[in-house]
Amino acid sequence: MLKQSKGCKVMVVVTTRDEGIANEISIVRPYNLPQLSDEMCWQIMSQKSKFETRDDKERLEPIGRDIAKKCKGVALAAQSLGHILRSKSYGEWNSVRTNHIWNLSTSTDASSSHEVLGSLLLSYNLMPPYLKLCFAYCAIFPKGHKMIKDELIHQWIALGFMEPSSIFSYWQLGESYIVQLLEMSFLQHSKAVVEWYDTNKIVTLFTMHDLVHDLARSVMADEFDLAGPNCRYAWNIDCTKPLKSSKTSPEKLRALNIVGAGNRGPPMFHRDAIVPAKYIRVLHATVNSNRLFVSISQLKQLRYLNAPNIHGPVDFGCIGMLQKLNYLNLRHCEELSALPDSIGEMEGLMYLNLSGCPNLKELPDSFADLKELVYLNLSNSDNVLGLPNALADLTKLQQLELTACRTLRGRPDVIINLTELRYLRLSGCMHHIFDSSSTDQTESFIDSICRLPNMEHLDLSFNGHPLISIPENASCLRKLVLHGCRQVARLPECVAKMDRQILFGLLPLFSITTDDGKCYSNLGFLEHVNPHKLNIKKLENVKSPEEARSVRLIEKHRIEEMSLMWNPQAERSVDDMELLRELVPPTTLQKFEIYGYISASFPDWVMSIGNYPPNLDRMEMYGLPNCKSLPPLAQLPPNLRVLTLEEMECLEEWNTTYCSGEDGVNELMLCKLEQVNIHFCPKLRITPHLPRAASWSIRGSDNVLISWAESVSHNDASSSFSGVSTTLIVGRSKVPLHQWRLPHHIPALIALHTYNCWDLTSSPEITWALQSLKSLKLDSFAQSKLSEWVGELASVQQLTINRCMMLEELPGNMRQLKQLQSLKLNICCSLRQLPLWLGELTSLKKLIIWKCSAITTLPNSIQQLTNLQELEIHGCPNLEQWCEAEENKPKLAHIEKKIWQSTIFSPKRAATPASCRCSQLRWPLLRKKIRK
């Protein structure tokens, strides 16, 4: 059966049978999805599965890459499978790869991407049962619907999808389920929005990708369709019609969402709109009708009631009859004036939202009996009485919202006794709590709140008076909100220790802003912070040097890492050099990064850098377009380990010495350098000597390669490189290899990696400079032949030729590489055969051939490689077939580890026919019934 589906070209419904049960699954053909390469899908899977941390990753990688290919370029598929495979064994990875869900046919179109749903379906089948229930339930929401986290979890709780735990609460279990679905990409974060109806509270929203939604509906089958006989969960039911008119037996319903018909006043609510659903557990009603509450009183099994925005005269007394409720949301019910005394009999009530109910005058005495209450919101219900007595006994409260609440005057002690409290919102109500405007009172109160053992989030926003004074122990909070507090009497340095969002934004990243018409920015807010890391961006917004001076960075002795960032293209009020003069770092600084600085010169402290951050071990300079010379880095004490210079088009010189003593002797410093990165600095030359470093990365900076003397005394150079084994990485070079002079100055060069270099022709001189090489990697060069110099590097032990699409043959003199132990050929599409002399590489231990599809056979001389321990072949179908042929197996019998077709062979195991190597999985049950 074919039918159109939003977000899809074609939906094919395939019916299968397992133990006599018909199961329908929707095989989806996506369109307009970003198509990623197989490699990118594998990278996503690798990250999601934590592949790099596994001990068996070499065995798993071919399998993983095969699975990634089945994702057909869809990131969602790679994400979900990657998460599922995280804790799976080698055998389970292989079972996923060979599962015959991949073999389902979607249409006569051979290019149809049925594997996309296959990956999601596999991910679903591998879920634990409890998670399947929670995921499938999300099918009741329309495509694109934004699910509210709190509501979704409480609906799961109400429907009994969670097993009781002696360790974790229902809420903790629900949050863990959300995390698992997010990690699988079965749920996705929607951008948090301000819910104005909920007193500006920022809520967490989730959405579901269309493909995932289609899967959820396929799994749910007819359990969400009111037109069918098995409906259990119904969405957007018209309240003007009787429920019994449906084909569904109303007694089967467990969740119901009802709406009014139109927006012209209260709808006509049919008396049988919900009453027949007498076993319902979840009711979400956006219906403004008194008859709704008359009907609700008969739903004795109801556990979740969300009925906001009820206007007009309503009798709320019936709510007290719903003794099994665990969730009750009556926000913005303007006519709610009192709660029934019987509310205290709701022994399982966990969530209660009474915000925006201005006529609510009093809480009954029985309110204190709600011992399981975890969430209470009375924001903007600002006339309610009896709150202090009620709060005193709600010992399990974790979230309390009291924005604009007026009825706690003189009784702040009831809050500071709530030891389980994690989230407290006192926005705009501090002056209602305290009898006077004493700063001491507020500081003592806030201090007591911060001492609560579980407190994480404190919102004191929009409290204009009394003065807010933040105590030292506020550092224990994860989030402190002071928006709109114009009178903060005290803000200690300790707030900088907070891990997450605090005061004015995110630390360590601090973005400088300024309001139109003001003569100052928010930079001064950093005066009292002293974090370990501080990244200041948008420095172009600073209005005056005095602002920077007031921050007194030099006195902040906790800062170890600091970044100063300008937008190079933005207009400035202050010259970069004038501003940088006031941003002197403390002596504790270990890592310093400067980006987007457009002045040509540096202030005095930078030019005397050795006197300021003596512990600096990492310096990075990016995007300095007008800088012609570096600060005297050689003056730094010998601690600098990493130096990065990038996108400095005008930079001409890096002097690596400094003048020592009265006789003016030049000394070479920077003796602890480990890594030097010089990228896109086309004019730069290093003089007079090359510092020693374990790793050099030169990209788009050819002058560094060629601006050296043609010869060098190796005795002179080797003294500075004593004990250093060096790696040189060169990328995007436009000059031929034989013109490179830099290698002559690195006598300890043991590894060379080139990529996107135009010309790798050599000369005897450069070959001599590379005689100590142990590892050589040639990446992405366009020549059809490999230069002869490669075969002249007698000391090379590892050789990798990667993404050399035009390479047709290996040079004959490579037979001289008698020390070669590892040979890797990757994506060399034009390479048609391996030479017969391959057998002369008698030290070879590992041979890896990836995606060289033109290679169809191995030379017979492979039998001469008696030291060969590992042979890995991937993406070479003809070559893999050659290896599988019975007549060729004896030629490979001496190799201990052989990997192709994502299978590992070992002579210790009996040979297994190819047709039997992959376990055949029984077709899984595709739809699990959701029971009450």
Automatic annotation (TrEMBL):
UniProt GO MF annotations? ADP binding
Q: Is Chloroplast given among the entry's keywords?
A: no
Residues forming the R13L1/DRL21-like LRR repeat region domain are 526-648
Q: Which residues form the Disease resistance R13L4/SHOC-2-like LRR domain?
A: 281-496, 767-884
Which SUPFAM superfamilies does the record cross-reference, listed alphabetically?
Answer: L domain-like, P-loop containing nucleoside triphosphate hydrolases
Listed under GO biological process in this entry are: defense response to bacterium; innate immune response-activating signaling pathway; intracellular signal transduction; plant-type hypersensitive response
Ranges for domain Disease resistance protein winged helix: 140-216
Q: What is this protein called?
A: Uncharacterized protein
